[in-house]
């Protein structure tokens, strides 16, 4: 075990996965339900247009997911999300084995690893269980309200920092991410690992994080 355990923060989508886990669940669901897809279409467009505006992205996401969750009881949807997370874990085209091994190595050295993600908590927790990966999950909260599933908390942008603080983490040693959306979280770290980012993004992070080492990893 390491003599000095570190706190490690790892994004989920794009770090552990090759795709956005919420979209991977959502898009087939909407395609199979044309009426839901028609209702969701304007919000899907809004989602694409708000990537650089976190408060707007959160409002759009909540409305979009409210539509996606409609017509099915909350307990059935949570079970469906859990099943999808398990399937995602066992699909080598969707889950990056090198990222899983990186997390296992960090844990074996005695470090604390927390996955912090805008993805949905039931899906990611089921993914971690399927891989027997002992990580803490801090992700978007969905829960039942009068039998319906609701998107309660969008763990995105600055909200990731607030959620970590709620867990008692006000500083951390290392962040793994694939996106500049995680700059608020990166600013609290001693070092950053950019996963599968291009040179332009690597340069942008270097300029935004003066004095913080940023290295690239390709999984």
Automatic annotation (TrEMBL):
Protein name according to UniProt: Haloacid dehalogenase-like hydrolase
GO MF term set: L-phosphoserine phosphatase activity; magnesium ion binding
The entry's keywords: Hydrolase
Hydrolase as UniProt keyword: yes
Keyword NADP attributed: no
Gene3D superfamilies recorded: HAD superfamily/HAD-like, SG protein - dephosphorylation function
Cellular component GO terms, alphabetical: cytoplasm
One GO biological process term: L-serine biosynthetic process
Family note: Belongs to the HAD-like hydrolase superfamily. SerB family.
Provenance organism: Aeromicrobium piscarium
């Amino acid at each position: 075990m390491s003599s000095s355990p570190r706190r490690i923060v790892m994004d989920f989508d794009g770090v552990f996965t090759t795709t956005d886990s919420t979209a991977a669940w959502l898009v087939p669901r909407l395609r199979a339900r044309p009426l839901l897809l028609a209702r969701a279409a304007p919000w899907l467009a809004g989602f694409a247009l708000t990537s650089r505006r976190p408060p707007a992205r959160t409002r759009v996401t909540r409305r979009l997911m409210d539509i996606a969750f409609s017509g099915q009881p909350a307990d059935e949807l949570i079970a469906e999300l859990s099943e999808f997370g398990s399937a995602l874990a066992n699909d080598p085209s969707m889950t990056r084995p090198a990222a899983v091994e990186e997390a296992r190595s960090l844990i074996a050295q005695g470090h604390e690893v927390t996955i912090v993600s805008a993805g949905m908590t039931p899906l990611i927790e089921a993914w971690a269980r399927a891989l027997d990966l002992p990580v803490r999950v801090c992700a978007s909260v969905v829960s039942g309200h009068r039998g319906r599933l609701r998107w309660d908390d969008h763990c995105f942008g600055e909200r990731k920092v607030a959620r970590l603080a709620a867990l008692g983490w006000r500083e951390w040693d290392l962040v793994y991410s694939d996106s500049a959306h995680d700059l608020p979280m990166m600013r609290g770290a001693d070092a950053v690992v950019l996963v599968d980012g291009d040179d332009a993004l690597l340069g942008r992070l270097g300029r935004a994080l003066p004095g913080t080492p940023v290295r690239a990893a390709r999984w």
